[in-house]
Amino acid sequence: MKDVLIQYMKRFSDLSETELKKLTVDVPVATFKKGTILLHQGDVPDKCYFVLKGCIRQYAVDDDGNETTFNFYTEEQSVTIFNLHAVEKAAKYSLSCLEDCTLVVGDLATEQGNYDMHPVLEKMTRKMIEEDFGSMRDDFASFMSSTPEKRYRVLLEKRPDLIKRVPQYQLASYLGITPESLSRIKKRSEANHLRIVD
């Protein structure tokens, strides 16, 4: 299963596969059952994750009990905690396993010690975070300027697996629309696809 991590790390490093394997020998990997809450909203996070297998949902619940889904993390994606150095360290969201998950589990308390032991790891992690930030910024800008229909088309193009892996009401929340609107958009999209095929 660590092969997934090694292939991902290759994108951010010039190290050989043998060197990367040595680097990942002591990397902790754990499995979590579907429904496991990895982080509760309001708790101070002490772990970060990399998805080897499965799907994690990032969401928040407001004072009225309404849920908003912010993201889904699937294979070869890191779930990075960015508020470690913030004044308010409590998480503004929860992380939940939508499927049985196999994850690399990083301990934020020992992160610097690992970097001191393996300086190449710090450089690699920085590149990974920069890519994540760039991707999040671009996705957010696109999201804000898009119609719901376009958001759905982009989802189909970039992350089609989510359509079958995620409950429709969570997908609708992620797209910023109601489940009914999503259902109508899906029907129109399927009808357009059929016309193109014909």
From TrEMBL:
Domain of life the protein comes from: Bacteria
Keywords: Activator
Xref: Pfam families: cNMP_binding
Xref: InterPro entries: cNMP-bd_dom, cNMP-bd_dom_sf, RmlC-like_jellyroll
Domain annotation Cyclic nucleotide-binding: ranges: 11-57
SMART domains: cNMP
Protein name as annotated: Cyclic nucleotide-binding protein
Species, as recorded: Domibacillus mangrovi
Lineage: Bacteria, Bacillati, Bacillota, Bacilli, Bacillales
